């Protein structure tokens, strides 16, 4: 069954997918011995909130995710990865 999304839901979904791809891309820069675990953690965090339909909560989760991705990116930069 195909579910149609309203415009706002479609945009939020696109933002979530962009965040997911961005997080995986940054995780790829991590040292080899932790890379798999980091990617698994990213996926678990996304899956944990997969069924969330509350647009306000989704916006909050996106902003929190962006902060976490930014922190990971900065940490990897400091480590030279």
From TrEMBL:
Domain of life of the organism encoding this protein: Eukaryota
Pfam families cross-referenced by the UniProt entry: Complex1_LYR
Domain Complex 1 LYR protein: 15-69
Compartments (UniProt record): Mitochondrion
Keyword Magnesium (UniProt): no
InterPro entries (alphabetical): Complex1_LYR_dom, Complex1_LYR_LYRM2
UniProtKB keywords: Mitochondrion, Transit peptide
Gene Ontology CC: mitochondrion
Keyword Mitochondrion on entry: yes
Cited function: Involved in efficient integration of the N-module into mitochondrial respiratory chain complex I.
Assigned protein family: Belongs to the complex I LYR family.
Protein name: LYR motif-containing protein 2
